[in-house]
Design the sequence.
């Protein structure tokens, strides 16, 4: 799926869910704690200054009253607390390039659409968005930055929400999860699954081509290994759920034969839930 198509689909989803602020989520962790403010320009509560609109910034940041008196577009800067960051991390390993049917997206394409939609919605709320270890400057760059996120450090720390999307078949993801939590980040996990991975709908002679550095496998009667496969798949799901629970991360599962909107809506609801405990 090309970056332009990802951006177009994600943009439609982001428009439907509306701006996605992160402040309320981090306020949960601050209840009962003293907050030490660091003054900086941003979208906080006290007026500070005007500045010119920068290329790639959303029109929602324009102060139209001030801009009406000039040929330039101005943004009204305010003081705020240290900014929250939405950090997006997409697994780009070989297994994520899998699709069991031409009518279905690959797992990596679907993950890119969902993360891009979240990033656009957060950007519409004037939140800082980071992908591939790089702060987002222009909305149209987001799919490209996600494509480069594999292997890049998540850059998630205190007052950061890390959203990791992947199939979690590569053991390295647990290391990234643990490092982010030790750094103080809240973490949302998006488990992206192809329907054939969950159902194993194979019978007769089947040739399995490896997605990564593994040998080709041929089965004369694939249905004979279905029970063993399903047991292994349940162990994988249990491992993912246990890793999320151990690190106090929220877990959302998404199958690529379902609309991307569903996963985005579920993730957005978790971010906006004032009573959620997972980000503590």
Sequence:
């Amino acid at each position: 799926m090309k970056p332009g198509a990802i951006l177009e689909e994600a943009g439609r989803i982001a428009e439907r869910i509306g701006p996605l602020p992160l402040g309320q989520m981090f306020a949960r962790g601050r209840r009962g704690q003293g907050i030490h403010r660091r003054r900086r320009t941003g979208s906080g509560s006290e007026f500070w200054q005007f500045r010119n609109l920068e290329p790639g910034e959303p029109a929602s940041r324009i102060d139209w009253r001030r801009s009406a008196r000039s040929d330039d577009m101005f943004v009204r800067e305010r003081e705020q607390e240290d900014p929250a960051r939405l950090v997006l991390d997409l697994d780009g390993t070989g297994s994520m390039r899998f699709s069991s049917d031409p009518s279905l997206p690959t797992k990596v394409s679907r993950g890119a659409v969902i993360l891009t939609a979240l990033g656009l919605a957060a950007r519409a709320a004037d939140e800082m968005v980071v992908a591939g270890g790089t702060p987002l400057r222009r909305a149209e760059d987001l799919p490209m930055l996600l494509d480069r996120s594999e292997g890049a450090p998540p850059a998630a720390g205190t007052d950061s929400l890390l959203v990791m999307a992947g199939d979690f078949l590569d053991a390295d993801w647990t290391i990234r999860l643990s490092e982010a939590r030790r750094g103080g980040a809240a973490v949302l996990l998006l488990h992206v699954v192809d329907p054939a991975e969950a159902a194993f709908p194979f019978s007769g002679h089947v040739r399995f081509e490896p997605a990564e550095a593994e040998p080709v496998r041929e089965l004369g009667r694939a249905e004979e290994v279905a029970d063993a496969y399903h047991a292994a798949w349940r162990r994988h799901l249990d491992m993912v759920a246990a890793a999320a629970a151990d690190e106090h991360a929220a877990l959302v599962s998404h199958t690529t034969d379902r609309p991307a909107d569903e996963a985005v809506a579920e993730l957005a609801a978790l971010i906006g839930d004032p009573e959620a405990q997972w980000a503590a």
User: Anything to note?
Assistant: The first helix runs from residue 3 to 17. Confidence is low (pLDDT under 50) at residues 30-47. Residues 39-79 form one domain.
